[in-house]
Amino acid sequence: MSHSAFRPALGMLLALLSPLLLAATPTPVGNSTTPLRNGTEIRDGSTLLRVTALSDDILRVRVAANGRFGEDASWVVSAEARGQSVEVQPLPGKASGFRTRHLSVEIARLPLRLIVRNAAGELVVADAIDRPFTWHDGAFTVRKALTAHEHIVGLGDKAGPLDRRGEEFVDWNTDAYLYQESSDPLYKSVPFYISVGAPGGSYGLYLDNTWRTWFDLGKRDPDAIEFGAPAGALEYYLIYGPTARQVVEGYTLLTGRPSLPPLWSLGYQQSRYSYMSADEVRGIASRMRHERIPADVIWLDIDYQDRNRPFTTNKATFPDLAQLAHDVGAQGFKLVAITDLHIADLPNQGYAPYDSGIAGDQFVKRPDGSRYVAEVWPGASLFPDFTRATTRDWWGGLYKEFIASGIAGFWNDMNEPAIFRTESKTMPLDTVHRIEEPGFATRSATHAEIHNIYGMQNTRATFDGEARLAPNERPYVMTRASFAGGQRYAVTWTGDNSSTWNHLRMVVPMLLNLGMSGFAYSGADVGGYAGQPTPELLTRWDEIAAFTPVFRAHSAKGSVGKEPWHDGPEQTAIRRRFIEERYRLLPYIYSLADLNARTGAPLMRPVFFDYPDSITAGCDQSTDFLLGAAMLIAPPPNLEDPAPYRICLPEGRWYDYWSGAAVVADTTLTAGWNDQSKSVVVTATPALNELPVFVRAGTILPRQPLIQSTSETPNGPLTLEVYPGDDCHGTLYLDDGHSQAYRQGHYLRQRIRCLTTADGLVVTFETRAGDYRPWWPSIDVVIHGWDGAASAQVGALTPSVESNAALHVVRVAIPDQPQVADVVVRHATAAR
Ligand code: MIG
């Protein structure tokens, strides 16, 4: 009898001897391989490893040091997502493991390790040969090999360069006031990275562990990725590409996608800490309209409250919130109000959140069972126990009056949680949370386990509360802290940045990495939170932020503010022009929001997301970004003093967005892993009022007439800017912009294609889905790169055509095209 078979028998004996010993039933050991319908389970000594295929591209990996898996529950990956499976085939020959349609998964021994290859046999990711798993007192470390050409992105809102290779990071939600480029950890934890450039293609790895996890991405050992946690389950998901786009799709399938946001949230938003009175808010609204600066939202920071007490208002300065919401609403503004989670500890004072919270036992406790009390903005405060479903229900109900007053969205700040007067800036690790949650065993958990998901559960409660109280509206929550999967509940911003050029430089990589981590809606405080920017800095910031998902200017107490009108008419004019451009582009941006809700593709993405072959050795793309696949924004690397710099456009033809002119390459550069594609290189030196933006040839870009807020109906035709080229297409998406009616088919989605023909161009309107009636009575089709006169035909109709030789465009005015239709445009000479 082998010693491994002897151990369970010993366990039974011990269990019989004393019920007390049951808690410590010994570890099952042995060596066995059990093929499963959807994977393989291997026992290797005391280690138990189970790899299952959720789909042909997504693997779930569970490892237990003591031979037993813990509870099958997750705050991030739903039971439905975890429950997916596909049938697998055994590996040929003697190797242990299995194959899906796209992957081969081998489990090698001595040491036990996982090797994943694509269908062509190319390596995707393998555990390191040296110490693939190590355990120490419940803590674990996993090591994976890192190959020569891999780049690493993801991990949420970490600062620093886009490519995280060579760095190490810790996940511990932190109120990081005055953070800098090298500060870590910051506000959010997303234990998920994407590797781009492995021989077999991109993969993502999500570590489903809420403790203080860490990632070393080739820093300690340049040839290894190491990650681990101090406790909790060793459980992760491997998401195969081969493209980064497919990884993000798979990751958001597992962890959830943002739902379609209200259209107003895609407009320009103005905030500061704080607008001190209702009159000041009215003044901001009026000035925006007077200055003709389009804007949709004004934010109420903590000073609208009575002594910083959440869910109150200061009766002297904000006497009637409903009236204020109504008045600024008439000017086309929405209000978003902050509601911090700390509830003032105010017994017997008629403070309703305290009274109802105590009655329902909603607050976290000390180990001795007393309520945990600590100081934050309102003074001594209590902290809701958001890991209980009943506490979240109670919290959601607190929004009733604000929603009735017409507040359109809510801001959850300080939810790391931030605590004053403590060295750790947060709760003690032994603070007790209760898990009372469908799908989880009911138990208590320490703050060490819950800390990183506390903010996410706060936003979940807010989101669900809004959805319950205003069931036909789209909930809107902005959060500072969050975790993987938090994109389901809230948009986010990068916290307390500073008014410096370096912080503006940090914006693009931070927002790109948030997008690759599922958070498609993120922004950085425009102008920088702490400090007052120089006029040039605020102007540049507005220019770049106009192309980022959340366009919100915000400012710390004591600063002049980041409203666009500071610094005189010249600066204001430039800022206005970029904000206006944002509003003209809303039909395009909204179509990206629709796409995100359906696929998880972030609105703002790294260039390689859509152009995987474009990563070049000779050209720095790290400051560029895409807004959808069609637009490439290329801010100067040296923002404060643009010297001539090279912009690398992925292989193909491009147009200058501002002039509409076809880009003439200065030179081309060989690009891609295998030097298979060529980048188009142009040199730029943008003046302060210029930002290089390019459109891919093969794009149909929808634009609309200028409006001052999304509450206005655009007046005039929809414009389709057609940039002829290969795979030419664009998408229209529209609905009422605020309700849930789109889920019942009350939307409009229509794909449009274009094809260059021998004598001109055909623009094809495909079948329109949904029954929403658009605001546009007609459509102007503007074809770029067109020389000479033209004629056009749509069915029996001969639309009017106007060509502009100087701009190289032809404009064809057609009625709305709700049906399938071809717009045939011919060069005048060819039509003769
Ligand atoms: O301790 O609500 O990051 O945006 O203006 C500061 C006041 C609390 C921090 C947020 C900031 C907000 C501020 N808050």
What would you note in describing this structure?
By secondary structure, the chain is an alpha+beta fold. 20% of the residues lie in helices and 29% in strands. It is built from 15 helices and 51 strands. The strands form 11 sheets. The protein has an 8-stranded antiparallel beta sheet. The protein has an 8-stranded parallel beta sheet with strand order 32-31-29-26-22-21-20-33. A hairpin with a 2-residue loop joins strand 45 and strand 46. Helix 4 runs parallel beside helix 5. The longest helix is centred in the middle third of the chain and has 23 residues. It is globular, with a radius of gyration of 28 Å. The protein starts with a helix and ends with a helix. The N terminus is likely disordered. The site of ligand MIG has 11 residues, from loops.
Index terms:
832 residues, alpha+beta, 51 strands, 20% helix, binds ligand MIG
How is the secondary structure organized here?
Layout: H1 3-17, E1 30-36, E2 39-45, E3 47-53, E4 58-64, H2 79-82, E5 89-90, E6 96-99, E7 103-108, E8 113-118, E9 123-126, E10 133-136, E11 139-145, E12 151-154, E13 168-170, E14 188-189, E15 192-196, E16 203-207, E17 214-217, E18 224-229, E19 234-240, H3 244-255, E20 268-270, H4 278-291, E21 297-300, H5 321-330, E22 334-338, E23 343-344, H6 352-359, E24 374-376, E25 379-382, H7 389-397, H8 400-404, E26 409-412, E27 432-435, E28 443-446, H9 447-469, E29 477-479, E30 482-483, E31 491-493, H10 501-516, E32 522-523, H11 535-545, E33 551-553, H12 568-584, H13 586-599, E34 604-605, H14 607-610, E35 625-627, E36 631-633, E37 645-649, E38 654-656, E39 667-671, E40 677-684, E41 693-696, E42 699-703, E43 718-723, E44 728-734, E45 748-757, E46 760-765, E47 778-784, E48 790-794, E49 800-804, E50 809-815, E51 821-827, H15 828-831
Parallel strand pairs: 14-30, 20-21, 20-33, 21-22, 22-26, 26-29, 29-31, 31-32, 43-47
Antiparallel strand pairs: 1-2, 2-3, 3-4, 4-19, 5-6, 6-7, 7-8, 8-9, 10-11, 11-18, 12-15, 13-17, 15-16, 16-19, 17-18, 23-25, 24-25, 27-28, 34-35, 35-36, 36-41, 37-40, 38-41, 39-40, 42-43, 44-45, 45-46, 46-51, 47-50, 48-51, 49-50
Helix pairs in contact: 4-5, 7-9, 11-12
Bound molecules: ligand MIG.
Ligand MIG binds near residues 414 and 529.
